[in-house]
Amino acid sequence: MSHTAHIRSHRKPRRSASSIVVRTGVAGGVLSTLAVAGAAGYANAAEAEPVTQTLELPTLTADVATQVAQSADATQQAAANYELQAERDAAAASAAKQAKADLAEAKQKAEAKKKAQEEARKQAAARATRNAERTVLAASASVGSSTVTGSSSATGSAASIVSFVKSQVGKAYVSGATGPSAYDCSGLVQTAFKQVGISLPRVSQDQSTAGTQVSLDNLQPGDILYWGSAGSAYHVGVYVGDGMFVGAQNPSSGVVERPLSYDQPTGAVRVL
User: Fold this and answer.
1) Under CATH, domain 156-270 is a member of which superfamily?
2) Is the pTM above the cut of 0.70?
3) Cα–Cα nearest to 237, from 214, 218, 217, 260
4) How far apart are CA 48 and CA 58, in angstroms?
5) Average confidence score pLDDT of the chain
6) Which is nearest to 182 in space by CA: 265, 263, 250?
7) Could you give the CA distance from residue 146 to residue 160 in angstroms, rounded to a whole number?
8) CA distance 226 to 233
9) Contact 223, 270 (CB under 8 A)
10) How far apart are CA 102 and CA 118, in angstroms?
11) pLDDT of 98 over the 60 cut
12) Is the pLDDT of residue 94 over 90?
């Protein structure tokens, strides 16, 4: 063979054209492939040999799924936080409303209690005043037939007064009456002293200061007894001697004669 004869070239063919196809599978996790097709020709266009090359690209499915899941978790957490905050706000509003209602109710109860206490205080004060009028000198005075050291025998005007009040025993008690068939306590005393020409005030309060104050252990017949304090007495009677008195007591008993120990008087005045 001649050294000048034509011999096929062993050089690599040139790349004169290329074709690239990219296929990507994201959702299904399919491997992405890149196909590259190239055709290279020898220097003589007659004997061209195609060359094909495949490249694998990394799968994006796992990263995207993770991001989607994280985004969903974040959204769900945010929604839960909003719901929790709304519940807290509602609970706080309800608690504030209930606290306001409780405060108003407490104020009303406090006012009612205060009024009740004030009313009870007034009633107690009134009772104490009445009781005090009945018990003045109770600890220091022991009045009875055995403790009276004054005269027991009535004479003169005193005898007339004693006789008159004793004669009225058994008659009725009528408020405002001055005889002759019924009396109240001051009406009986006033009418008795009128028998001897002495004019007395009409009511118990004034009769308790109509004469000279005398002690209960030095009484004489005809002395006026009173219950309560001098100047504000609520009951009067006439001492008749021997530790006894006559008085128009009340509607149920009328005019009676009783020992001083039956209803202890507070004080006495002497008019005669």
Assistant:
1) endopeptidase domain like (from Nostoc punctiforme) (3.90.1720.10)
2) no
3) 260
4) 33
5) 77
6) 250
7) 24
8) 6
9) yes
10) 24
11) yes
12) no
Kind and range of the H or E run holding 182:
strand 182-183
Contacts of 85 (CB under 8 A, 6+ apart): none
Closest by CA position to 163, among listed 242, 236, 246: 246
Q: What is the Cα–Cα distance from 51 to 16, expressed in whole angstroms?
A: 11
| Token representation of residue 59 | 């799968």
CB 246 within 8 A of CB 196: no
d(CA 208, CA 233): 6
Integer Cα distance of 137 and 267 in angstroms: 8
Residue 24: what pLDDT? 40
One-letter amino acid identity for 102?
D
Give Cα separations from 83 to 78, 89, 127, 212 (angstroms): 9, 10, 65, 93
What is the CA 105 to chain-centroid distance, rounded?
Answer: 7
According to DSSP, residue 155 is labeled -
What is the bridge-based pairing of β-strands 32-41 and 14-23? antiparallel
Yes or no: say if 216 and 187 are a contact pair by the CB < 8 Å rule: no
Tokens coding 55: 């490249």
Per-domain residue ranges of the chain: 14-59, 156-270
